[in-house]
Automatic annotation (TrEMBL):
<feature type="domain" description="Transcription regulator PadR N-terminal">
    <location>
        <begin position="19"/>
        <end position="89"/>
    </location>
</feature>
<dbReference type="InterPro" id="IPR052509">
    <property type="entry name" value="Metal_resp_DNA-bind_regulator"/>
</dbReference>
<protein>
    <submittedName>
        <fullName>PadR family transcriptional regulator PadR</fullName>
    </submittedName>
</protein>
<dbReference type="InterPro" id="IPR005149">
    <property type="entry name" value="Tscrpt_reg_PadR_N"/>
</dbReference>
<dbReference type="Pfam" id="PF03551">
    <property type="entry name" value="PadR"/>
</dbReference>
<dbReference type="InterPro" id="IPR036388">
    <property type="entry name" value="WH-like_DNA-bd_sf"/>
</dbReference>
<dbReference type="InterPro" id="IPR036390">
    <property type="entry name" value="WH_DNA-bd_sf"/>
</dbReference>
Length: 121
């Protein structure tokens, strides 16, 4: 994915993807960024991620606590609220139809159905 498109696409899906990562369990921002990069989303910088996480917290979709570091600095650990879990499921349910609609607007065909294997989350 080239740099220009990567940034545009990331901004559009960063909150959704952060919620999906947190659906697997509580974690800190750096681990969320690493997971998204490993998934092929691209490099997610803290300057983009932390404002999104803070907004999700303000919206009541996640909470955070400060965890003291044992061998280094402390870090903020995020976890989904019940509302966050509900929103994540709503997005998962609606994503295939949304992706197909965007593909239609772009005039491209989705060669592979957009699905998430439960074992991969």
């Amino acid at each position: 994915m080239d740099g220009v498109r990567s940034g545009e696409w990331q901004r559009g899906v960063l909150a959704t993807c952060a919620l999906a990562v947190l659906a697997d369990g509580e974690t800190h921002g750096y681990a969320i960024a690493q997971r998204l990069q490993a998934a092929g989303i691209g490099t997610v910088r803290g300057g983009a991620l932390y404002p999104v996480l803070n907004k999700l917290e303000q919206d009541g979709l996640l909470t955070s606590t400060w965890q003291e570091g044992t061998a280094g600095p402390g870090r903020k650990v995020f976890r989904l609220t019940a509302s966050g879990r509900e929103r994540t499921q709503q997005v998962r349910d609606g994503w295939p139809a949304f992706a197909a609609a965007v593909a239609g607007v772009l005039g491209v065909r989705l060669e592979t159905p957009v699905t998430v294997d439960e074992g991969e989350r």
